[in-house]
Amino acid sequence: MKKAICPGSFDPVTSGHLDIIERAALIFDSVLVAVLHNPSKSCWLSAGRRVELLRKAVAHLPNVSVDSSEKLLADYAKEQGAVVVVKGLRAISDFEHEFQMALINRKLNPSLDTVFLTSGEHFQYLSSSMIREIGSMGGDISGFVPPVILPDLLECIHQTT
Ligand code: PNS
User: Fold this and answer.
1) Binding site membership of 68 for ligand 1 (Cβ less than 6 Å)
2) DSSP labels for 108-127?
């Protein structure tokens, strides 16, 4: 039974994230999507809200669960019995930082490997920060997020602008 973990800030989850999660769910027996703390980002949505949106977005995937943690990824993965980290790579520019994190995580937890999936070609340019910016300035974000979370996201944008 191979359990994978898909970590991220997911602020908010994008169609690109969902593409990676769906593909990971085809490869691994179970996938835990983990909303973790990124100290270099100050998040727009609360961790609880990000988990709620993710749970809606992955409701059609029976082997995927969603949770959040304040722990280090290496420790949380061990606690949850995950042996593989799955990350999406959009472009070469993502690579250096992701490579560094993969090496550090394996140093901290030698049984934890990282697998990179290349982002779908339609999602190479997508990022949560772009969606936040477009949404907060009244732009149309419907092509960038899972349709099932669009109403909730528009409500979040409405509440915070
Ligand atoms: O979506 P992001 O912000 O690029 O995801 C980064 C995230 C949350 C996966 C990363 O910051 C992380 O793993 N945070 C948990 C704390 C941790 O383990 N830090 C050491 C990383 S080498």
Assistant:
1) no
2) HSTT-EEEEEEPPGGGTT--
Active-site choice (50, 69, 87, 90): 90
Above 90 in pLDDT, residue 93? no
Cβ 36 under 6 angstroms from ligand 1: yes
Q: Is the beta carbon of 72 within 6 A of some atom in ligand 1?
A: yes
Find the DSSP H helices in the chain.
15-27, 47-57, 73-80, 92-108, 128-136, 150-160
Say yes or no to pLDDT of 160 above 90: no
- pLDDT mean over 28-43: 97
> CA 76, CA 94: separation in Å to the nearest integer?
23
Quickly state the pLDDT bin for 161 (edges 50, 70, 90).
confident
Residue nearest to atom 11 of ligand 1 (CA): 38
Q: To which residue do tokens 């934890």 refer? A: 112
Residue nearest to atom 16 of ligand 1 (CA): 72
Query: Starting at the edge strand that comes first in sequence, how are the strands of the sheet with 113-118 ordered?
Result: 64-69, 30-36, 3-8, 84-89, 113-118
